[in-house]
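Sanity check

After download, print the first record. It should look like this:
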Amino acid sequence: MKKQAFNPYLPSCEYIPDGEPYVFGDRLYVYGSHDKFNGEAFCMNDYVCWSAPVDDLSDWRCEGVIYRRSQDPRNADGTHYMYAPDIVRGPDGRYYLYYTLDMIGIMAVAAGDSPTGPFEYYGEVRHASGAAVGEAKGDIYQFDPGVLLDDDGRVFLYTGFGAPVSESSEEKFMHGRRYEGAYCMELERDMLTVKGEPVCIIPQVSYSAGTEFEGHAFFEASSIRKTGGTYYFIYSSINSHELCYAVSRYPDRGYSYGGTVVSNGDVGLNGWTTKHSSNYIGNNHGGMVRVKDQWYIFYHRHTNQHAFSRQGCAEPIEFDKNGRIQQAEITSCGLNGKPLRGTGRYEASIACSLFSKDGAGFIYEIGDLSVHPYFTQTGEDREEQGDQYIANMQDGAVAGFKYFDLTETRRIRIEISGNGKGYMEVMSGPEGSVCCRIPVDTGNPAAVMVSELNLHDDRAQLYFRFTGEGSINFHSFELES
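Expected structure tokens:
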């Protein structure tokens, strides 16, 4: 029996946000930024790559470090971090990894002979004159690349940033460079030299009033895919938590707003607003991929009560008969292809919903973090032996998991720690009926509590709500038939 796939899809000690998924041969590869657990900034670690067989999306393998930030000549001392990358197999069969160093605004490229490298520095995206794009005032500010090799062999690079235009942002970050929204540039076959001038294809918030993008203007996270003759441009909107998309019949013009693909708090799904988000929300970035006959959207979630330890998640997506993407629901079963089994032990870290009795909201706008539950781990940043759990569940805190086949499930066990006393109520949904109440007392030497569970549904939700005094850490639960 194959292992099951969960969200996050990588080991719980791994923090790979901004995931760009691609199928090369018979494997699915994911390229992203590399956060540090409990980091003090975005993307503090070097690039690594993970891959899985297309026949088993639970069997992820770390391909190791594929590129180090100190390999860039502008960063020999390693003081700058590498932000979200993208990759393409060029017309020559080599693999080209595009990235920017933090807040420099110039796009660099590394190249290798396989999807996992080793990658070596290749050059910077440049004008025909040889000058790097973004080096001079009046150039566009480059950020978060998306890159596409089209069916006719032409190569297009997408980039841009969308902070509201202000005198402060001009001077502090952009240094006189343009950032009207998302740009498209065609590249020569050398994969570096720009043909013509960059074209703005989607406006940022300062230029979106009166357009169809108003309310969902471009902010960052360019990602491009083509299917059925249609170009799908995925991006993070000014709302931050959502990945939106725009569509066109052309790679470099004519884009119209499509909708939201996924929100890392299910905002917009079933009419939910940011005040009713199902999880703690923050910035989002990812891309979509077709594996066999199924399309998926990759995105990330936030952990450890800040924005600098993000983890990759993925969900299946569906297109309607007109090619419109339906907003995906965030789940615990992600790449699994079906509900999780109703037997076995599950880490609490696969919760897709987490909030306090006062709700969730933006991770960087919460205020008093001491009353909120959060995903965390013991020890320092590491690449093995993940032990992530949910910490600080106080009275009214809820952790939700979707979906399970519970048709044969009879009992449930929970493993907790902390300094709390009360009950763990197991519910059939965020506002569902209470299926059982498990007494909780962390002063009891027994760390595992057991209860009968009568929720015989083949697509069940499990929501755990702590009611009582103090706070508990939720480590795992086990389902028994």
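If your output differs, re-run the checksum step. Summary of this record's structure: The chain is about 0% helix and 40% strand.
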